Amino acid sequence: MQHHYSTLLDIPKSLALPTVICLDAFGTLFGVRGSVGHIYSEIASKYGVKCAPDVVNKYFYSAFQNSTPCIFPGVPTSNIPACEYQWWREINRQTFTAVGVIEQFEDFDLFFGDLYRYFTTPAAWEIYADVIPALTNWQRSRVKLAVVSNFDSRLHTVLEVLKLAGYFSTVTISTEVSAAKPQPEIFTAALAKYPCSPQSAWHIGDSLEDDYLGAGNAGLTAIWLNRA
Hints:
Layout: E1 4-5, E2 20-23, E3 30-32, H1 36-45, H2 53-65, H3 80-99, H4 108-118, E4 125-127, H5 131-140, E5 144-149, H6 155-161, E6 170-173, H7 174-177, H8 184-191, E7 201-205, H9 208-217, E8 221-225
Parallel strand pairs: 1-8, 2-5, 2-7, 5-6, 7-8
Antiparallel strand pairs: 3-4
Helix pairs in contact: 1-2, 2-3, 3-4
């Protein structure tokens, strides 16, 4: 059976609720307020660098999609945030190099530090309108809710500042388990926190490959949230 919906509230009540519902974070619970290109361009302008948001957006997503997964097998947990920071710095370096303005930054590291921290603030994000009603309904039904995400460890802060953390009993992040969706290991790691088989869990996410196919291959009931 194909489970494919446009909003979380479109999931029919006739679909029997599982023991655990796992949800992706970015693109499922919240999205960027405006666009990545607009935010990057606005913060760059504070450092005297002018660039068109649509051009920045184009090259950002190109660099992001061509990057290696944001996972660091064998790295001690205490060193993971520094690895995440450098991973994102490289994507940003590639982005602004492709835009053709990298040399205009007097101190690129100072700029990037501000940019990186900005994405831990509520100003950077927008919660989708269907999210709070859906989470509230599931919580009232006593379903356990979990986040399973390829985000980085800043996600813990983002969930707190967006006042979403209280809905979830666990958060599983790719960098913390050295596996990224669509790899089955990240779903296994998430469900290991519950007395629950894959067959007793849903996973909901906006990526056809990472969420829908990844979770389905791991044995969960996969629901594709196609907001487009």
